[in-house]
Structure formats: structure tokens, C-alpha cells
Amino acid sequence: MLQDTDTALSVRYKLALDSANLGTFSTCEGLGAEVVIEQREEGGNNDFVWQLPSRLKYPNIKLSRPLGRETEKVATWFASMTSGYQRCTGMIQAMNAQGTVIAEWSLYDVVPVRWTGPVLNPDQPKVVMETVEIAHHGFLPSA
């Protein structure tokens, strides 16, 4: 039996934070979670060490893309933080080449970490890239 599976070939990632659409990116890394394990040694028990799950930890997410018109959106978003920043929810959508959403992740309590602009060097002609890095405090359930 054949399944109609939409694989992630030629994927783009759309980043939206509350009402701010920051555009599409060509790479996305850092989506994940880790359970922090605390080890406890029990007196008189020499067979094993207790492995106790304690909390979840989320890595920062980095999205990159070639420099383009959407760079202005990121620059405007970062510039708005000079007057203070309120945490927001975020949405990352993975889309195929036709623009169909194939997966999405809702993020809780998004915090901006870093924007890295392009390296402009005429001695090294290559595609100039920008990177946005965000932190978050977990995933929200799907609607």
C-alpha cells in the first residue's frame, strides 16, 4: 500500500512571532528538547545509580537565509527592542517547494538572542547570509 507522504525536499522555514512575520529561511537548526537527568547514589546499593528526570531544556534555534528584502523585517524587529521587549509566542513552519506547510512548531516565551548580518568581502565572492537566533521556553500544543 502506498502512502501519500510529503517529504522534506527543498524545505523553507517561515518564522512568525506574534504579529511579526520575519519571513522565510533556508536553514533551521536547534529544534529539540532534552530531559535533564540527575543522578542519585543510594547508600548500600552498589548495582546502579538512580537516573531521575528533573526538567526539560531547550536549545536556541538558529535560522539562516541569503540576504534579501526580508532582512529589513529582522532589522526592524531588533531595532524595536531598544524601548523594551515583551516575550511572545512564535511559530516555525516547514514548507515544501510549493509552499505547502508540512510541519509546524509553536514556541512559548520566545526571547531574541542574536542577529548576525552578512560578511561583505569582495575577495570571497559567495552568497551572503544572515542568521537569527532565538531562545524559547518550550513548545505549545498544536491547535
From TrEMBL:
The organism of origin for this protein: Arthrobacter russicus
Name of this protein: Phage tail-like protein
Lineage: Bacteria, Bacillati, Actinomycetota, Actinomycetes, Micrococcales
Superkingdom, natural source: Bacteria
